[in-house]
Design brief:
heterodimer; A: mainly alpha; B: alpha/beta; OB fold (Dihydrolipoamide Acetyltransferase, E2P); 5-stranded mixed β-barrel; elongated
Chain lengths: 337, 238
């Protein structure tokens, strides 16, 4: 075998000088032919490793689970953009932004689904003239206070209705607080200008506008959803389970720890109550914090917000929301639980 | 991203979802059965969007629209192609081994309402029911009975027997929780094999309290087919 390979460069040369000689860079070419196969083989072998398979399953599963809700959110945002005149919102919401904030927060009850749906909707609301503070209150409260999520919470904590009440109140309070905080400290220039949500233009077909906005928002948000899903799957597979029990004993550390866990694991808001209930070694206040922080801030949402509103905004907003949400859960949890 | 690529991406995503939810039941590896209608509708919507985009790009050739989606949209090809050509399997022993068993603690707080066990022998039972019988049933009805359970194999890291396991989902595979019953008396089958085990409670601790070991002395282990919905605590089929 080796003999023929060594001799072969000369052998054809003897028959037909020059013409059939091996190409000058034949080792390179050989490498180019063999390497991709080798890499594919190694990646394939590595891809079958249990940890990597679990990672792929979790990442795909987070994406598949979120796509219907993301479609709902982007379709709604496309429809708001194309069909709803801006005057509707100015009529529905109180004139003063400080009053519009709690109203918009309470309106979150009507958007069933998980948090992925609310980001594009909030963005199109801002595009249609709703005060950003009110849109953010809606963005934060919608995933946490809708009937599906509250029902799931009641099922996960049987015989403890105070948990449902605490979740509802703490989420509404945190959402409204963030809205007011934006009125007080927020700056418009942190927000990336919404290019797409210009509303209906005379002379264009509303349906074409709806389709265009829907498609653009979905591709846009979908890409960031995949980023978030990959990050969540990485943490899901990488966080060793023994860590879970470590901080259960200290009241303050356990609250902070479950808040961090909620951000990293990015469990969807319809299911996080079951996960919280299963963390039974932790205090009720810490469990409540997990359920209040999770729908408002997590790696998936940070990725979606970065894509929609820009990085400057997402970093500040997520950091502030985390602090406010923890404070509200501690307050409400301290009173009710 | 050019318009034909956007159309292709939408069509592939739609086909991927339909492939997983309408033509096969592959979606059961990732989400709960109740998601099926939502996934089918989403697949159809994405397919329609993609075809509409292709049609409109074909008709209005050369007139490119102003706001192409960002580069990050390319990442959507990953789940689409993965669903179509390289779908990962359902979670198994790797995930179960990493988790402390805990799914039963949240259910059935009231422990006095246990019905009498059926008279058949062996008694077909779910892993969750077995755990509750062992830990909460003060009447100790499970003692001396022969039971039969189905689950997959998770090796125990301390080498003392192995675990018969089920994983349960609340929403998607990111929140899987495990149910485990330790099995004594037979050699460990290959990890992730689905088996039906017949045996009786392995004495350890006080039956009917939290100190009782959730464990089984196995008499017979039989390989079975993986159920299509593996994230469910179901009775053995035979």
């Amino acid at each position: 075998m080796q003999d023929t390979e060594e001799r072969s460069p000369e052998a054809p040369a003897a028959v037909e000088p020059g013409a059939r000689a091996w190409p000058r860079h034949w080792p390179l070419l050989l490498g180019a032919a063999v390497l991709p196969g080798l890499v594919l083989y190694l990646v394939g072998r590595w891809g079958e490793a249990p940890a990597l398979q679990a990672w792929r399953t979790v990442a795909l599963s987070v994406t598949v689970q979120a796509v219907p809700f993301l479609l709902l959110g982007t379709a709604l945002s496309g429809a708001i953009n194309a069909f709803v005149p801006a005057s509707v919102f100015t009529r529905l919401l109180p004139k003063r932004p400080a009053l519009a904030v709690p109203v918009a927060g309470a309106a979150g009850v009507v958007l069933p689904g998980c948090e992925c749906a609310s980001v594009p909707v909030a963005n199109s609301l801002i595009g249609r003239g709703v005060a950003p503070a009110a849109a953010f209150a809606f963005l934060l409260s919608a995933p946490a206070v809708n009937p599906i999520v509250l029902t799931a919470t009641a099922i996960a904590f049987p015989g403890r209705p105070e948990m449902v009440a605490a979740r509802l109140l703490a989420s509404l309070l945190a959402a409204a607080a963030m809205g007011w905080l934006w009125l007080w400290l927020g700056k418009e220039e942190w927000l990336r200008p919404a290019v797409r949500h210009t509303g209906h233009q005379p002379g264009h077909s509303r349906w074409a506008e709806f389709r265009g906005g829907f498609q653009h928002d979905f591709l846009h948000a979908g890409g960031f959803l995949v980023v978030g899903a990959l990050a969540a799957a990485t943490f899901n597979v990488a966080v060793p389970p023994s860590v879970l029990g470590t901080f259960a004993d200290s009241a303050w550390l356990s609250v902070l720890f479950l808040a961090a866990l909620a951000i990293l694991l990015a469990v969807c808001s319809e299911a996080d109550a079951f996960v919280a209930a299963s963390l039974s070694g932790f205090s009720p206040v810490a469990q409540l914090t997990f359920m209040v922080v999770g729908p408002m801030v997590d790696v998936k949402l940070i990725a979606l917000q970065t894509g929609t509103f820009g990085r400057t905004f997402a970093v500040r907003f997520s950091a502030a929301t985390t602090v406010v949400a923890i404070a509200c859960s501690a307050l409400i949890g301290g009173v009710l639980l | 991203m050019k318009r034909p690529v956007q159309a292709l991406l939408l069509v592939l995503s739609g086909l991927g979802l339909l492939q997983a939810s309408l033509f096969t039941d592959m979606f059961l590896r990732y989400v709960k059965p109740g998601m099926r209608p939502l996934l089918i509708v989403s697949g159809l919507v994405l397919l329609t969007l993609g075809l509409a985009e292709a049609w409109s790009a074909y008709r209005t050739a050369r007139r490119d629209e102003g706001h192409p989606p960002p580069h990050v949209a390319w990442l959507l090809f990953l789940p689409a192609l993965s669903l179509l050509f390289y779908a990962p399997p359902a979670l198994g022993s790797y995930t179960a081994a990493r988790e402390a068993p805990r799914a039963t603690q949240t259910r059935d707080a009231g422990d006095d309402d246990f019905e009498p066990l059926p008279a058949t022998s062996p008694v077909p039972i779910t892993l969750g029911d077995f755990t509750r019988r062992v830990r909460q049933d003060r009447t100790r009805a499970i003692e001396e009975r022969t039971v039969r359970m189905t689950g997959f194999v998770t090796p125990a890291d301390d080498g003392d027997g192995w675990y018969l396991t089920r994983l349960l989902l609340n929403c998607c595979a990111a929140d899987a929780q495990s149910l485990k019953v330790r099995v004594h008396g037979v050699a460990t089958p290959k990890a992730d094999t689905w088996v039906t085990v017949t045996g009786s409670w392995h004495p350890g601790g006080t039956l009917g309290t939290d100190s009782a070991e959730v464990a089984l002395d196995a008499r017979e282990v039989k390989k079975v087919q993986r159920p299509s919905n593996s994230y469910m605590d179901a009775l053995p089929l035979d």
